[in-house]
């Protein structure tokens, strides 16, 4: 049965509030614990996570990883959560300990940033069962070392250069799972997929923007009801 043949069943009140771009469905996907992951929502907002139809959550934020936040995200998410555990603030043994703790909490993957020391990744690989995802902004010697140290998925986040970096990675590693930021529209998403990305991370609109859209729809509906009467 193809996706076009699927029957949709939703609640009256709780439908899908936020849909990821259709273009992401063109991905081949990454099999993560038996689940096909094509789309990842890049968010730590529990309201967004609970109401989006993404296949997984990419929970990376500009602070040191906090187990309480990870637990909250896991509590509300109905899909796998990949959480950041190491970056410019959190390094070395602490990053390894946070990766182990996150693994025990139930995350589907741990994410480290582009500057993470390969020795830290190697230390994580010895102690966690979930895949280590390393973020890359370019293909250089450090990325090669990070992959050799135990990173099993690469997350490309290189702004306008993302598709080019994905292409370089795919050429160097034909069998490596690659996820990447899709950019602002279907054109950039499709270009990234064509370059070799297996999954796309997508940044949703802000809650303020979503609230504005809902209020506009309600205003239009009320206006139509008024004139129909």
TrEMBL record:
InterPro entries this protein is in? Answer: Aldolase_TIM (IPR013785)
Protein name, UniProt field: Dioxygenase
